[in-house]
Amino acid sequence: MKETIKTIALFTAFISIISCGEASKTPTEMPVDSVKVTPEVNAEAGSKLYNIPSPIETFTILKMSGADFDKTLLNPAKNISKYTSSFSKSVNLGTYSSDLSFCLLYKEKQDITFYLKNVNELTAALGIEGDFAQSVTQRLKANADNSDSIMRIVSEASVDAYLYLKENQRSNTSILITTGGWVEGMHFITNMANKTKKKEILGLVASQKKVIKNLVRMLEKFETDPEIAGLLVDIKDISAIYDNLKPTQEIATASSDKKMASIGNNKSFDVSEEQLKTITEKVEKLRNKLTI
What we know:
The chain is mainly alpha-helical. It has one domain (2-291). The protein contains eleven helices and five strands; from the N terminus they run αββαααααααααβββα.
């Protein structure tokens, strides 16, 4: 039980890198029509801070919008045997962590067990350890049956996880985990956007315009690493599509002229059906490259 609790604390921390502000609100605390897609996570590369949203933020909006749990979107747990290099283990720790976040949010207990095991195995394989998780152990024990509370608690552990990775000169690893988690999140939201056409989910796709720019800047700090340089090429390929998204100051609404409304912070963006299709195809190509 102790190791399970520690792993739950770790998985969100690793893909969040560093958290700031108040803990994420649960679906019951945030009405859909008041949601603003604003990054809740800061990741440091060099001397700069870049906003990267955590999977919990993204998947909470998916759930609030009425999206159902879709097991077919998960990276199959059995794929873990394919990940033998440090690169693939790091990226797919992010992938499986996102899957675990999704399963936790929807309280899919059997799947939680599978993905928790995979996260634990990859964490051990990468030699990522630390005492930071111990500080929240008692709180997690007291809230073991409340997944919403667990997610709030583990979000707070992300600061210590970031410090651990930084102090142990593991920035490359943390960025690969973050990127893997982001790609898996994009896999979820683009598939659900195509399936449901719901404005909140379409808005999540559009809101990644700023996020992917920050991800590119983070990866560029480490592009002397050949594997990160290769990953950066694929991320930039997706980012190029976002460069053509046009801003709108209008209230997000669905329309019939092949434009899809979006939501955002200070500025919203429209994404056309063609752009959504292209983004989806490029995300799937990269996700397949990383996971299969």
